[in-house]
């Protein structure tokens, strides 16, 4: 079994290699839990015009799942950030296939959440 050169998930090169090799082999990867797991806890906390930060977004469908939920507050927006430029490029391309209402309220940026520039 070939191991990645960098074995630390905190290092950007780990994720660059992860996505370059096809990640898990799935189109998307939810490393913690899926929508059904977090939505009941998250939804009551959200308010219209809130702006969520999704750090380490990878190729997660978090944005589209939240923003298309029937009980999602109007005006909610999501900023997805990741250190891996290639996955942000991939997700920015996928964003163009999502509904216009999701596109208007979603952005993907390459950022280090420990050194945010906004």
TrEMBL record:
Methyltransferase in keyword set: yes
Record keyword Methyltransferase present: yes
Gene Ontology MF terms: methyltransferase activity
List the Gene3D superfamilies. Vaccinia Virus protein VP39
Query: Which GO BP terms, alphabetically?
Result: methylation
Family in the record? Belongs to the methyltransferase superfamily.
Q: What is this protein called?
A: Methyltransferase domain-containing protein
Q: Which UniProt keywords apply?
A: Methyltransferase, Multifunctional enzyme, Transferase
Tell me which domain of life the UniProt entry assigns to the organism this sequence originates from. Answer: Eukaryota
């Amino acid at each position: 079994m070939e191991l990645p050169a960098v074995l630390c998930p905190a290092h950007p090169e780990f994720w660059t290699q992860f996505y370059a090799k096809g990640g898990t082999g799935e189109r998307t990867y939810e490393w913690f839990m899926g929508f059904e797991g977090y939505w009941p806890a998250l939804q009551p906390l959200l308010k219209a015009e809130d702006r969520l930060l999704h750090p380490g977004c990878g190729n997660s469908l978090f944005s589209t799942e939240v923003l298309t939920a029937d009980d999602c507050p109007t005006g909610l927006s999501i900023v997805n950030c990741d250190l891996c430029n290639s996955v942000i490029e991939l997700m920015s391309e996928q964003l163009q296939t999502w509904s216009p209402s999701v596109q208007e309220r979603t952005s993907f940026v390459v950022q280090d959440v420990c050194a945010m520039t906004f």
